[in-house]
Amino acid sequence: MAQQKKLVEAITSRDEDFAKWYTDIVKKAELADYSGVKGCMVIRPYGYAIWENMQRDMDDRFKRTGHENVYMPMFIPESLLQREKDHVEGFAPECAWVTIGGSEQLTERLCVRPTSETLFCEHYAKVINSYRDLPKLYNQWCSVVRWEKTTRPFLRTSEFLWQEGHTMHETEQEAREETLRMLQVYADFYKETLAIPAVVGRKTEKEKFAGAEETYTIEPMMHNGVALQGGTSHYFGDGFARSFNITFTGRDNTLQYPFQTSWGTSTRMIGALIMVHSDDDGLVLPPKIAPIQVAVIPVAQKKPGVLEKAAELKEQLLQAGLRVKLDDSDKAPGWKFSQYEMLGVPVRLEIGPKDIENGQCVLVRRDTREKMFVSLDAVVETIRTLLTDIHQSMYSAALENLHSKTFVARTHEEFLDIAANKPGFIKAMWCGDSACEDQLKDETGGVKSRCIPFVEEHLADVCVCCGRPAKHMVYWGRQY
Amino acid sequence: MAQQKKLVEAITSRDEDFAKWYTDIVKKAELADYSGVKGCMVIRPYGYAIWENMQRDMDDRFKRTGHENVYMPMFIPESLLQREKDHVEGFAPECAWVTIGGSEQLTERLCVRPTSETLFCEHYAKVINSYRDLPKLYNQWCSVVRWEKTTRPFLRTSEFLWQEGHTMHETEQEAREETLRMLQVYADFYKETLAIPAVVGRKTEKEKFAGAEETYTIEPMMHNGVALQGGTSHYFGDGFARSFNITFTGRDNTLQYPFQTSWGTSTRMIGALIMVHSDDDGLVLPPKIAPIQVAVIPVAQKKPGVLEKAAELKEQLLQAGLRVKLDDSDKAPGWKFSQYEMLGVPVRLEIGPKDIENGQCVLVRRDTREKMFVSLDAVVETIRTLLTDIHQSMYSAALENLHSKTFVARTHEEFLDIAANKPGFIKAMWCGDSACEDQLKDETGGVKSRCIPFVEEHLADVCVCCGRPAKHMVYWGRQY
């Protein structure tokens, strides 16, 4: 096991330097690499396979809720971006601009899409005429660009992959329902597929999306107590529809503006997977999105019958619909153990001459390292159960982390004390004034409102910052 | 059936004005729409669903042949693009350049990728060190930009969606095999999934990809006799590897350059689908990529039991794994018939009170309009067989068109006569000199060499243009 030790030592410890541990995992698990373009990353095969599994799962959820995929251009003419005032103010500072096309200076410069509300609106203005054309439930998978100063793989990059849903509805109520429906789809996906619990709720006025009436968010907590905005769902009212002159003839034969939503999640979710679940030996992947669910490692593979049995087991597991890799390379078993731990493969199956003699094999869980001997007859069934268990215990561990790092502050002093000493979420009352958000952020060096949950507790009568009457209970925290 | 007539009349006839017929179908079948950005299109839900079906099918073929998906940045710094001389000369004239990022002038301008050889090479230089790291078999699904002067939806647009494979190999032979393997994967996909036959072969020196040693192509013929470059596969030798300093330690412990390929297909294939298979009533889609394979249309749907039976049939077909749509809207059956013909749905299922009484339904094939009465007990099985038949007869019809519009020219006069009077491919001998290609193109107003097929016929001893000794038999034709 000397080699295993060595490989493990090569990673920075999570408790020692969280940021370095994170980038070590990105590198060692071969998820991404830096490119020659500042702030842009290469998503490597293993990282991309995780993204593909996420995509397929989410896409199924979108289609089950009636959405269709489309593709809009990647360029937005400057005049189109400027059509909605708040929106352009929010995004113009981080746009990348194309000014030359085919050796000629363009008469109007084009922004590489940072998000596509304006493009969807331009198209909707053409295809929506009657209430019969509604709802329009469109989604797009694409890459977007936001010029970032400081970047980190998956968490903040100048270009990233994402999905953006854009929908149009006949009534305000329908659009509001859609906004919350998609927030729930995200929350379900986080829980059921990524095994990540999260706080969900509404953003404050200050933290809203540029141009939105309401922004809802899902906020998982990373292992170190820092929040990540995991996905957002926006209700736009008819603001964009008015700016883009999107109208339809209603059931009462009058001309009306439709009501709009948008919602998005991105490759940032891969960053969340790392920071919520992984440990000092590398990635720990939830079984549903693991590119490899079972790594079959032959032991003493030169002994007669071992490789054959390993191949037979692999085939059996593949037939059962599992994602399996048999590593019959000439590397030592110890090296392989470390390697598939680094890659976060949920279950390792070891099979050697002795095991074959005893009609059994060894299974090792990645999450708890629990090791078990299993009869070869029961191996498929056991692994199936194990994968469900692993998902469940990964979720429970993450939930336990979220609970143990959520604190209540009833006074200003308590708030500052927790912010300074206890990484995590702070639940505290708030007056509704963004000046208090600014003040708390300044005093704490970065703690911001995360969201107002749907069910608010009454922790105190007054705002934790200014002492005026409280309007809401807010989750606060630092963020990536 | 008055409504059906009217709808049909709204499309330009294919024989009258092929170009207008094409754009009519794009519009009426709601495949794509123009956007506010010159040359960029919106791919609408129905068009995108076709693309998704193509993607899934091709992606499976790529994975079965050992390829992995990755994602490279969309920007290429100018200095990186310039690293390979021929390559930059080929692409620089049609690049879109980002010169401003986040309100600041960039010190080096960035090209929006027209293709990603340079980005893959930059990455490969970092991750390839030993022969053990080879082969690298990467593919990417993304959008690319080539600034085009005249554009047409799917056929030629400034931005389009595609896949680009980029592979690196230990030996020249392996890379050459990969180049041809992927050409074959494309040819199989065209035949087995798109029901499109094609001529395949090698491009002449003049028509090669910028920077390639060899370019292979698949060239389907459109209904009007014009060719479309349907997909290309390039062998690069070690040219890029040398320019990008990609080296590996070989089995003999010496430092070597790996051998490279790339291959690509794009949303242009949707254009091919239209121009090969469709007719004056709209799209005709091959069953394997049709977003809807069976349209269930209730007749006299207000009569008791009709909608229930229609829904039951839909469920039965869905259970059988087919893609089905039941249209129970209040539109007239005749309108629906036309509508699903326009959308190219392979099979229409009609069910009315009389049919139910007789324990049968009506099936109508989109390709031949053949109408048949089928017992309700046999409907799933019959449709399955029908879908296979439809694929086969669509392929046969396209093959018949390809054959009947392929001509032999043995003399210069014959060549010019065919080029002027008979749209289609011309098979003719060629000396190997690109001056003759230029001359033939000038004389015919656009007929170019399509490819040198793998099996060449000996049609004559001398070049059809200059009369010098012939080296190759070439397929010639006009192209989109």
Compact overview of the structure:
The structure is a homodimer of 480-residue chains. With 480 residues, the first copy, chain A, is an alpha+beta fold.
Q: Can you lay out the helices and strands and say which pair or pack?
A:
2 copies of one chain form a homodimer.
Chain A: H1 2-9, H2 18-28, E1 32-34, E2 41-43, H3 45-64, E3 68-69, E4 75-77, H4 78-81, H5 85-91, E5 96-101, E6 104-112, H6 117-127, E7 136-145, E8 159-169, H7 172-192, E9 199-202, E10 214-219, E11 231-237, H8 239-243, E12 248-249, E13 255-256, E14 259-266, H9 268-277, E15 294-298, H10 306-319, E16 324-326, H11 333-342, E17 347-351, H12 353-357, E18 360-365, E19 371-375, H13 379-404, E20 406-408, H14 412-421, E21 425-430, H15 434-444, E22 448-453, E23 472-477
Parallel strand pairs in A: 3-7, 15-16, 15-17, 20-21
Antiparallel strand pairs in A: 1-2, 4-6, 5-6, 7-8, 8-14, 9-10, 9-22, 10-11, 11-14, 12-13, 17-18, 18-19, 21-23, 22-23
